[in-house]
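Comment thread on ticket #2218

A.B. wrote:
> Attaching the input chain for the structure job we discussed in standup.
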Amino acid sequence: MGNSFGCSASGERLVSAARDGDLEEAKMLLNCNPCLAKYSTFGGLNSPLHFAAAKGHNEIVALLLENGADVNSRNYCGQTALMQACRYGRWEVVQTLLLFRCNVTRADYLSGRTALHFAAVNGHVRCMRLVVADLVPSACFEAINNQIECERGDSGVKNKNDQSALSRFVDKAADGGITALHMAALNGYFDCVQLLLDLQANVSAVTFHFGTSVDLIGAGSTPLHYAACGGNLKCCQILLARGASRMTLNCNGWLPLDVARMWGRHWLEPLLAPNSDSTIPRFPSSNYLSLPLLSVLNIARECGLQSSTTSSDDVDTCAVCLERACSVAAEGCGHELCVRCALYLCSTSHIPSNMVAPTGSIPCPLCRHGILSFVKLPSSPIKEIKLQLSFGLCTPCMLHPRDADCPSPTSEIRKNRVSSVSSDIFCPVTCSPFPSVAIPLCTCNDSPCPSFEHRETTAETQEESPRRSQATSIEQDKIEGPRLERTTCSSMFWGRRSCSREHQCNSEINA
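C.D. wrote:
> Ran it. Output below, let me know if you need it in another format.
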């Protein structure tokens, strides 16, 4: 059956190779037909890139991307390979996807979750530091020192402008208004909470009056409410140290103390009591914040990672790996490394520098001096990663090759999508798999969410009216019944709406 669809049989072989980590099989198939890199399984569930990213096969991910796979391709649930890698904590795959300039701000179709949400809910702090790398600029050594000397001066205003995009991304709400800080606090991942707070995450962000929060803790809940539900003492302490309030009431009238009592977290009562005199410890900044990561990422994108070994006496060899030629230099101490070792250092290091350095600096492996950014050496080769255009509607087939210069028929279709409307204007719950259904926004403040009973009463009064026939009312009930049931606040929550589709995609990967 697969042979009747052109290259679908070979595509399934590539999917199996990407899932099992068979690099030689993948190379052989892509050498015969590079278009197989854009293959996706029947139903549009997952592509080979999704399988390789979820399983952590970094070499196959790089091979697929070099053969023209779309780094931002989505599966049936709207999830990208970056989201799958963050879900399972494959930080090396996240690093490779960033080198190919993947879009970190994309959200899935089911719940509006970004890759940051997937990393936070599972506690993968290394993936989180990589996801925000393009939004945390690497400043020069002198600029950082000047900023430390005059934090309240003009540089503070510029810093606020630079962090606006970072704040919008970190505080992006998924279904129900749940941010990445809510997820990390609920599951008790202290390192993730600490990193998000250092990235200026909003400790006062509240959940919406509809969505998942209704069935979990309550609408209007802050990350402290979620931390109280999770029961992690350190998460509650650091949230209070960063400005969270014990006196914030959610829409149910519950304090964080009430949530802790409801879920049996009695050890949190002395800390969360409104008149508590408990001493809150001072927490240092997160060791997972990496300032020089963006600079070395840009150098790796320009020069590539495959630096050939050389035996020439004119070129210095990297003192860390002793294999590749030095291509970057650390600002401040001036020690030279190869770009691969520098990128690995910035992605994995979580040890603070012994020297006095700003928050987010990485200790040099040779002198322990704090590194704030890397610069490219003049002798470094320039090798840009060329991304091929992805095909449009059909699965690529070796029997019907297409010219890459030919305009895609989907260019005009993509212009008409709703992507032109900013996602920050509307609630993320509108990013549902049913775009044709008009979901009414709940505008309740202190009162409970409406149950749409008034619509039923009006329908009954209109049914009794002599102007409307009985057949018309029956057809109206058939149309409005499922819509009202789908859009009520009690049924519009994360798990029920997304579990079936997401379980189908995940079961395919984990098969």
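A.B. wrote:
> Thanks. Noting for the ticket: Confidence is low (pLDDT under 50) at residues 1-6, 141-145, 148-161, 384-497.
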